[in-house]
Amino acid sequence: MNQYALFLGCNIPVRVKQYEVSARMVLKELGVSLKDIRQFNCCGYPMRNTDPKAFLLSATRNLALAEKAELDMLVLCQCCYGSLKKAQVLMAEEGDLQEEVRLLLAEEGLEYNGNVKIKHFLSVLYHDVGLDAIKQKIAMPYKKLNIATHYGCHVLRPSRVTEFDDPVSPSLIDALVKVTGAKSVEWPLKLECCGAPATGIDDDLSWNLTEKKITDAKAAGAHYVCTACPYCHIQFDTVQQKRLSDNKKQDALMPAILYPQLLGLSMGLDGTLLGISDNEIDISDVISFLNEE
User: Which listed residue, 89, 204, 221, 283, has the most CB atoms within 10 A of its CB?
Assistant: First the structure.
């Protein structure tokens, strides 16, 4: 059985609990074991562009804790994934900053030697579990369900750091969607930003980016946008719901479904336990696309 140190980050336990719950459920069904390291802290993302030392120390401390446990990391959040991968690249270099970080870690009895691998949840499913093993667990494949896959920015770019997929023509998430029986539609704005980084800074710009993606996905015939990042999911789910909560605008809604929810339902897992009722925009009708074999 594969075992990983689960890195939740800060946002998921507070704002997108259903991502954690559904991910744990499908991973358990697929024979993946998770270890919770309570000493994990923030990935450093909020300080990445303002305080390089605080960012690198925060991120590397997590790597050191996973290394101490002799486990690779399984990361759910794409921003956390990008930050931890960036720290890994930086710590492979030599410099005063790296030396200072190592000294600060040593004060806690920690050290980082570059012996831990950082993997996104989707990468574990695709590369470590494998499509064939997932397919064997599909009990109720979807029929006539069209999905717009949303990759997000932080797993694709910069590609030399993230090493997730081809940044120009990615296919990993599409393949994971197809294994459930759903169709992954092609849509022009597939790789564009969801708008989340501008939220709270320029809300109109943020929503403009989101709305364009929603319109594009609907035009491509998608029933749902499929997400695997808490920030992206909040943008497509919570923010969209607030923007289009007026009854006159309800028809414009494009529901967002987290990939482990999409997968879990096709595996025959209970939708209530997968947290589908925790999404702001109702996704209960996705069950109608399931085709029991």
Answer: 283
Kindly state the DSSP code that residue 239 receives in the 8-state scheme. I
Closest by CA position to 197, among listed 244, 170, 234? 234
pTM: 0.97
Domain with CATH 1.20.1050.140 in the chain: 2-120
Q: Amino acid identity of 86?
A: K
> Any idea which residue has 């849509």 for tokens?
187
Cα separation, 143 vs 122, in Å, equals: 22
Encoded amino acid at 72, one letter? D
> pLDDT tens, 64-118?
999 999 999 999 999 999 999 999 999 999 999 999 999 999 999 999 999 999 9
Looking at the DSSP bridge assignments, the partners of residue 153 are none
Burial class (CB in 10 A: 0-12, 13-18, 19+), 77: buried
Look up residue 22 and give its amino acid: S
Question: Do 229 and 185 touch, CB atoms closer than 8 A?
Answer: no
Q: Which CATH architecture has domain 2-120?
A: Up-down Bundle (1.20)
Phi, psi (deg, nearest 5) at residue 279 = -70, 140
How far apart, in whole angstroms, are the C-alpha atoms of residue 284 and residue 293?
A: 20
Domain with CATH 3.40.50.11810 in the chain: 137-289
Q: What class is the 137-289 domain?
A: alpha beta
Residue 37 makes CB contacts below 8 A (sequence gap 6+) with: 5, 6, 65, 66, 69
pLDDT in tens, 168-188: 999 999 999 999 999 999 999
Q: How far apart are CA 81 and CA 157, in angstroms?
A: 11
